[in-house]
Amino acid sequence: MTSIPADASPDEPAAGRPLSLATLAVAAGRPPREPFAPLNVPPTFASTYVQGGPDDYGRFRNPTWSALEEAVGRLEGGRALAFSSGLAAVSAVLDEVPVGGVVVAPVGSYSGTLAALAKMQRSGRVGEVRTVDVADTAAVEAAAAGAHLVWVESPTNPLMAVADIPAVVAAARAAGALVAVDATFCSPLVLRPLELGADVVVHSATKYLSGHSDALLGVVVVRDDDLEQRLRTTRTLGGAVPGTMESWLVLRGLRTLHLRVQRSQASAQVLAERLAEHPAVDRVRFPGLPDDPGHSRARAQMTGFGSIVCAEVRGGVAEADSAVAACRLWIPATSLGGVESTLERRRRHAGESVEVPETLLRLSVGIEDVEDLWADLDAALRS
């Protein structure tokens, strides 16, 4: 019987042909191929290790984190660091801003990021936060002057604005600013910001990377060695380390990322097109629609249009809330990116941006049968 070398890696084919992202999601982050070795890196529940190096405590390293970081890093084309939550990952990157520094951030974007920035501004930790429409490249370029960090979401959460990332990167570079892109809505299978020139990619791994609504985790991916070390130090000293079980769950979920994204994106396209014609809907925000303002940019930068659809219900808050309550298959929930389809009226949250319309519903399309999803949604809207 032919033996497999102990140092053989399943994600480095002998022929030298680069693997697709779909295959890397399955193959990366595996243990060495040794006789009777497990196929998956097992969860290592340890706070303390036998001395033998500088990092012999559980706040510095864990084999389960390392496997997840290797896999996500390969998918993004950089080096990944896992954090205890998506917001912990966001906070670590915001910590790169010098005291009194200037941050450019998208208006109508993830409320957690905007709240963290507002808190930093109130305390004087950040001197100024300039909010702009990231789809307005000229506005971003103007705001970037004198900035230390340009924060991008594309598409934004939940207004679905699509940024011209290469143009934003060019403007930030000219200003000497760092560029961070929150790509949670897309996953690395749909958008790879590092290839477009960004310095940092942030994910709430709770969402698509995990895909099963059972783990809180965040990930930051970079290419620069010094930046990686600074973020690692921030994680270690701040204690924002990921849990072992959470890391294992996200890595397990990552193995089906390609199939989940493929299915949910296809369904999102169908649902967006039908919602655009629905009598109970005023507007649909989805870059896969040809008349969406971000359509051409999304086609140029992304390999798909994602699985988040936002619809503004005709009428008022009562009608929007009634539609959510009438759903039987769609689940009213705040998170997104899971195998199950969820929806919510975003302005129900007190901290949501006033830029978000009161009747906007954010729909996270899962992997159920699209006709079942449509029947439930159509009935709820007509009710």
Provide the descriptors you would attach to this structure in a database record.
383 residues, alpha/beta, Aspartate Aminotransferase, domain 2, Aspartate Aminotransferase, domain 1, 2 domains, 7-stranded mixed β-sheet, 5-stranded mixed β-sheet, 12 helices, 12 strands, 35% helix, globular, disordered N terminus
Can you put this structure into words, describing what you see?
- This protein has 383 residues and is α/β, with parallel strands linked by helices.
- The protein folds into two domains: 63-254, 3-Layer(aba) Sandwich (Aspartate Aminotransferase, domain 2), CATH 3.40.640; 258-382, Aspartate Aminotransferase, domain 1 (Alpha-Beta Complex).
- It has twelve helices and twelve strands.
- It has helices at residues 21-27, 63-76, 86-94, 111-122, 137-144, 165-175, 225-238, 244-254, 257-275, 295-301, 317-326, 370-382, and strands at 79-83, 101-106, 126-132, 149-153, 178-182, 200-204, 218-222, 281-285, 308-313, 331-332, 342-345, 360-364.
- The chain has a seven-stranded mixed sheet with strand order 1-7-6-5-4-2-3, with helices on both faces. It has a five-stranded mixed sheet with strand order 8-9-12-11-10, with helices on one face.
- α4 links the parallel β2 and β3 (126-132).
- α1 runs antiparallel to α2, α2 (63-76) packs parallel to α8 (244-254) and α11 packs across α12 (370-382).
- The radius of gyration is 21 Å and the shape is globular.
- Residues 1-8 have low confidence and may be disordered.
- It comes from Motilibacter peucedani.
- Its EC number is 4.4.1.2.
